[in-house]
Amino acid sequence: MTPRMTDHFDRAKTGYRALTGFEAALQAGPLEPKLLHLVKLRASQINGCAFCIQMHTAEALQDGETHMRLHMVAGWRDSPLFSDRERAALAWTEALTLIAQTGAPDADWQAVEAAFSPDERAWLTLAIGAINLWNRVQVGLRARHAMGLPAERADAA
């Protein structure tokens, strides 16, 4: 795979700064980092974004996520490792990432309503939109991913 561009963020600096500014706001927002990592990883898996899969896996490990849960994100529906809140977020992630096929079903939204406050729902929906934008940029321009991952933290739960 050959990258199509490697200077795209330099060429669109103000857009890139806006996206990174949003990411900073997202991290300062009400959603817990582990949940955001799961959402970003799942959308990136669906979109086939190797760059983002590697990056969000590495960040999740650094924040104390376990290898086992990260491996199981693609099969979250069949794994007992995820809370009801995480399941609602992952279902909403899939629904919005595949919106042309799903139409964002009411049942998925109802699960989000049951597990998240109104502010959290807004942030979750924006986070899903943002990772889909990042995925489309990185896949479209064939960005290369890093080649390593950190070890799981000894204190990972």
Give a concise summary.
The protein has 157 residues and is mainly alpha-helical. It has nine helices and no strands.
Mean pLDDT: 93
- Write the H/E string, N to C: HHHHHHHHH
**Percentage of residues in DSSP E strands:** under 5%
Share in helix:
55-70%
| Discrete helix count | 9
Net shape: globular
Radius of gyration: 16 Å
Quick one: how many beta strands?
Answer: 0
**Stretches where pLDDT falls below 50 for ≥5 residues?**
none
| Sheet of most strands | none
Specify the structural class: mainly alpha
Question: What separation lies between the terminal Cα atoms?
Answer: 36 Å
List the helices and strands and how they pair.
Layout lengths: L7 H4 L1 H16 L4 H15 L2 H13 L4 H6 L11 H14 L1 H4 L3 H10 L2 H23 L17
Helix pairs in contact: 3-4, 3-6, 3-9, 6-8, 6-9
